[in-house]
Amino acid sequence: GTLAFRARSKRSGDARKQVVPLTGPARLASERAFNLVARRLAEWTMEDGVGNKNSLAVDGEGVFFRFGGRNSAPVLNGLDITVEKGIIYGLLGPSGCGKTTLLRCIVGRHKPSSGTIKIFGKIPGKADCTVPGPGVGFMPQELALYPEITMQETLTYFGRLYQMERSAIKERISFLASFLDIPDKNKLIKHLSGGQQRRVSFAVALIHKPPLLMLDEPTVGVDPLLRRSIWKHLQKLAMTDSVTIIITTHYVEEARQANVVGLMRDGRLLAETNPEVLIDQHNVLTLEDVFLKLCVKDSEAIEAASTNELDGFDEEPVWVKRRAYHRKYNAVTSINGYEQYETVLLNNSSKPTIDISRKNDCKSRLKNVWDRMGALNHKNFVRLKRNIPLVFFQVFVPVFQVIVFCLCVGGEPFDLPLAVVNLETDPSGKSNTFLQTISPTTFIQNNFTNLSLAIESVERGKNWGVLYIPATFTDSMINRYLEGIAVDNETIQNSTIKMYLDMTNQQIISTIHSKIMGNFLTFARQTLGGFGWNPDIASPPILLGKPVYGDIHPNFTEFMAPGMILGITYIMAVGLSAMAVIIEKKEGLLDRSWLAGVRSWEVMFSMLFSLFITMLLQVALVLILTFKAFNIPCRGPIAWVVIAVLLTGLEGMSYGLFISSIVNDENIAMMIAMGSFYPNLLLSGIIWPVEAMPYYLRQFSYCLPLTLIANSMRSILSRGWTITDNGIYDGFLVCLAWIFPVILIASLFFKYKK
Question: How far apart are CA 172 and CA 179, in angstroms?
Answer without folding.
Answer: 10
